[in-house]
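Supplementary Methods, section 5.1.

A reviewer requested that the exact input to the structure prediction be made available. We therefore reproduce it here, unchanged from the version used in the analyses.
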Amino acid sequence: MQGEAVVFLTAEKRHDGIYGDFNIAVEPKFHRRGLGSALMERGLNDLIEMGCQTAVADYWLQNAKVQALNRKYGFRTVRAYNYYETEATS
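The structure derived from this sequence is encoded token-by-token as follows.
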């Protein structure tokens, strides 16, 4: 595990400072170890320290594990977007 990135967290204040946007990710082989919860708590605490009153989390709707984690921390679905992808070709 040395030198290997297993988690990812971004937390930033947006717009007028009322809300913050953050994203977390955990390498799949490290799931079910409490890392997602630890990142969630750290991200929310960081946003509170920045003076944010509301947190916004972006995630794929198909990701049931992230949905469950978000609900555990009081998030609710406000808006859903459809994203489309294609292979980049030159």
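The mean pLDDT is 82. These observations are discussed further in the main text.
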